[in-house]
Design a protein that fits this description.
Elements (H helix, E strand, L loop, with lengths): L5 H5 L47 H10 L11 H10 L36 E6 L7 E5 L3 E5 L7 E2 L9 E6 L9 E5 L21 E4 L7 E2 L17 E6 L9 E5 L2 E5 L7 E5 L6 E4 L5 E7 L2 E7 L6 E2 L11 E6 L6 E7 L9 E7 L11 E4 L17 E4 L7 E4 L3 E4 L9 E5 L13 E6 L7 E5 L2 E5 L10 E2 L9 E6 L8 E5 L3 E5 L8 E4 L7 E2 L7 E5 L3 E5 L7 E2 L14 E3 L7 E5 L7 E5 L11 E4 L9 E6 L8 E5 L4 E5 L7 E4 L15 E6 L7 E5 L3 H4 L29
Antiparallel strand pairs: 1-2, 2-3, 3-4, 5-6, 6-7, 7-8, 9-10, 10-11, 11-12, 13-14, 14-15, 15-16, 17-18, 18-19, 19-20, 21-22, 22-23, 23-24, 25-26, 26-27, 27-28, 29-30, 30-31, 31-32, 33-34, 34-35, 35-36, 37-38, 38-39, 39-40, 41-42, 42-43, 43-44, 45-46
Length: 740
């Protein structure tokens, strides 16, 4: 929240939606092989990541810190019901004067909102499909923006869910039978977990069932049979990992859903379901070929199971003895031109692999009909040596509709093989890091599809939205962005220029850098810097500086026009958060305040006295008087007037401090933790934002996530709960390299 955010903060007093999740098996993380450096691009590019150099799960850990009860070091059980009760008890302005403490009375204001953009930046997309009956109609599902539809091949998009519907969508399937192609299914709930052991939880967000459309994706209804309406508990359809229809079943509306509790089957279009393949937890997968033969993956007792069925109720195990017994995630690639061929792209195998990845080809052999006698080929040795899927976070596979040997797999990068990865010589990297930003294609791929009208046309979906390749077969790939109007970008922060009438706005976006806008209305923006854009700042026009950050508190300065880019992260700072707070002093834009420690057990305010020309050494001072020990500073707010240079800061466990004369060498620090935040002890909720009244430095608003005063009033106990994360045991890929 920026210095103009006093009114804004009143609108966003945070009550986090928190849910419990079931245990999942261990997921291992491997380092991404280094890539060669490339010249700095305007804007500067730093690869995005789920974590940092030292902690592959830094983002997940920060989100856990935001949502946990610090006393129990766990996300409270039954929290959603208590959050609702807490929110209902908050005071409400109803258009009449309201006095709350010192200062003049103020009346509620009606705010008028206008979209500012960016209108050309996509976001994390896990579901994508092309309408087989109308190839210019595209359907996409993002993890935060819901279901979107385009009827002009991605030139424009419209959001198809209402604000009150669940927007965390993850998978999509169309009924491909003649006369039924207007029917679609979309699953909700994101189960990808970046765990390093059974007590480490990643970014897992519950959904609540499956959406269905019967008008070509224009409108959607949540299937009652899949919606529990109980987000405080975990139900099978809260994590729908994949969904598939049966194009060969003319007499029934057959749908299969891969959930974290196994494979479910419906023969009445989702009206009712039966469990056909139970599973313990974690990733499952399901696919149905044009002949109606079904393939599935489950995990039972921690062991992987690969299945085949011709009727949906009887399933046969088909994996060979040499197949790994433990795999964290498998995605299935069907070959439309040869229904007997199926590819399996694995991550987390306990047998020989390439960066923990394997690739298998299965060919069904006619016999007893069970498929148990199929032929398996382990083609792992032909995988690209730098294949990387961030522990299965970005993992996808598609087979060209008219060529069973033309296979595309995606992780952080996108690869094409023209011989089904039988050899290494037929493999080419066609997207990802080497293609971004200059060649449009964004890394971290989750979905893709070939056009039913022209099998050379391929669409790719991932963390950067959607891109189209007019010809996926040519040696020199060309991509076109389809993100215009596909507004699903996930932002961590927003900063606006303080000058009256200025249109300059800077925002930090998940995996889409720090985005800069400078035009009224819903305009196109440019990327000021790369990586996971986090907390950012904009100087007055006279200062001519933009201040950006990427994950782990790496901070940069540059001119408004993108020149003079300098990383000036203090060289001896440590213990920064994944999304690390900074604030520019509105009284003196040379002063920038930054949260970090001087050791792993400290967190304090760092001040740079000359940020326009700062480097990792120049201008930095760590203010020892502001140290809050191991609590870690999560939010900063600075005064504008009456008295200037008053800095408020909050911590990850509820402490709120006030530093007077923060612009001096020895500010006076007072603990002002409100009584509702546990009286200054490290037991309160995560302080997300502090906004200082621009007219009165004695008045501030604190936005925080619920603490133990909300979580202690437990009325229902559950056997399962979210546990505390163990600190990272694996190293993430090196992040301080430029985009290749």
């Amino acid at each position: 929240m920026k210095r103009s955010g006093f009114v804004r903060a009143a609108l966003v007093i945070l009550v986090a939606l928190v849910v419990t999740i079931p245990p999942s098996p261990e997921l291992r993380v491997t380092a991404h092989p280094p890539r060669p450096a490339a010249p700095l691009h305007r804007p500067g590019m730093i690869p995005a990541s789920l974590g940092t150099d030292d902690d592959a799960d830094a983002q997940a850990e920060m989100e856990f810190r935001m949502l946990r009860d610090p006393i129990a070091n766990a996300i409270p059980r039954d929290i959603h019901r208590r959050e609702i009760a807490f929110a209902r008890a908050l005071p409400v302005r109803r258009g009449r004067p309201l006095r709350s403490g010192p200062g003049p009375e103020s009346a509620a204001q009606t705010l008028v909102w206008a979209e500012r953009g960016p209108n050309n930046v996509g976001g994390r997309t896990r579901a994508f499909a092309v309408d087989v009956s109308s190839p210019t109609t595209l359907l996409a599902g993002s993890v935060a923006g819901g279901i979107w539809r385009s009827t002009d091949d991605g030139a424009s998009w419209s959001q198809r869910l209402s604000p009150g519907q669940i927007h965390g969508t993850t998978c999509i399937a169309q009924d491909r039978r003649a006369g039924s192609t207007g029917t679609w299914y979309v699953g909700t709930g994101e189960i990808r977990g970046s765990t390093t052991n059974a007590t480490r939880w990643g970014s897992l967000y519950l959904g609540d069932g499956i959406f269905k459309s019967t008008d070509g994706g224009a409108t959607w209804t949540l299937l009652p049979s899949t919606s529990s309406g109980t987000p405080q508990t975990t139900n099978p359809f809260d994590y729908v990992i994949d969904v598939a229809t049966n194009p060969a079943n003319a007499g029934q509306d057959e749908v299969l859903a891969a959930t974290f509790k196994g494979i479910y089957r419906s023969i009445d279009g989702g009206g009712s379901w039966s469990s056909v393949l139970p599973a313990d937890s974690g990733f499952t997968e399901v696919a149905v070929n044009p002949n109606g033969v079904m393939y599935a993956v489950t995990r039972v007792g921690g062991l992987i199971k690969v299945w085949r069925s011709v009727i949906g109720t009887v399933w046969t195990l088909i994996q060979p003895a040499t197949f790994p017994t433990v795999v964290n995630r498998i995605v299935i690639g069907l070959a439309p031109s040869n229904p007997n061929v199926v590819y399996y792209f694995n991550y987390g195998a306990n047998t020989a692999s390439v960066n923990l990845h394997q690739f298998w080809k299965y060919t069904y052999v006619s016999g007893d009909g069970s498929g148990a006698g199929g032929m398996w080929e382990n083609r792992t040795d032909s995988l690209p040596p730098d294949i990387f899927t961030q522990a299965g976070y970005d993992q996808t596979i598609q087979v060209k509709p008219d060529d069973e040997n033309f296979v595309i797999i995606g992780g952080t990068d996108l690869y094409r093989s023209t011989d089904g990865f039988a050899t290494t010589g037929a493999t080419t990297v066609i997207g990802g890091y080497p293609f971004y930003p200059d060649r449009i294609h964004h890394p971290d791929l989750h979905a893709g599809a070939f056009s039913p009208a022209d099998s050379k046309i391929y669409y790719s979906a991932g963390d950067g939205g959607i891109a189209k390749a007019p010809d996926i077969t040519i040696p020199d790939m060309v991509w076109t962005s389809l993100d215009h109007g596909y507004n699903v970008t996930q932002f961590y922060s927003v900063a606006i220029a303080p000058d009256a009438g200025s249109n300059v706005i800077l925002a930090g976006a998940q995996d889409n850098g720090s985005q800069l806008g400078n035009a009224p209305g819903a305009s196109d923006w440019i990327m000021a810097y790369g990586g996971d854009g986090t907390v950012v700042e904009v100087s007055p026009v006279a200062g001519n500086r933009l201040y950006t950050q990427y994950q782990g508190g790496q901070v940069q300065r540059q001119n408004w026009d993108g020149t003079n880019v300098v990383d000036f992260t203090p060289s001896s700072a440590t213990n920064q958060l994944f999304v690390n707070p900074i604030v520019l002093d509105p009284n003196n834009s040379d002063l920038l305040y930054y949260a970090a420690g001087t050791s792993s057990s400290t967190s304090m305010i760092w001040r740079n006295d000359n940020s326009p020309i700062a480097d990792p050494i120049t201008g930095w001072t760590s203010l020892a008087a502001t140290n809050v020990g191991a609590h870690r500073i999560s939010a900063l707010g600075i005064s504008t007037a009456n008295s200037p240079n008053v800095l408020y800061y909050g911590t990850t466990d509820g402490i709120v401090m006030r530093a007077v004369n923060a612009n001096t060498g020895a500010p006076t620090v007072t603990n002002i933790t409100p009584p509702g935040l546990a009286g200054g002890t490290p037991t309160g909720g995560f302080v997300r934002c502090v906004a200082v009244d621009p007219t009165n430095s004695d008045r501030a608003l604190v936005a925080r996530h619920p603490g133990p005063e909300l979580s202690e009033s437990v009325t229902h106990r559950r056997d399962h709960r979210v546990r505390a994360p163990a600190r990272g045991r694996h190293r993430a890929p090196a992040l301080r390299r430029r985009w290749a």
